[in-house]
Amino acid sequence: MSAKKLHISLALTLGLLALVGMLTLLGTWGSGPALAQTGTGTIRVATTGNDAPGCGGTGNPCRTV
Question: Could you state, in order of their start, the residue ranges of all structural domains in the chain?
């Protein structure tokens, strides 16, 4: 492979890598933080409660927050 073809191949490869990198950065920039889920916003807690998944309701209070 001649030096000129090698130089062109290297330039194209580096350009493609730069393009992919910029598109990746632009894609992750606008994602922003995750928003809280909507709901009642009230978690019920009691000394007799348990910390099972889904706790916090009237009939199933959590023990801790």
Answer: 1-31, 33-64
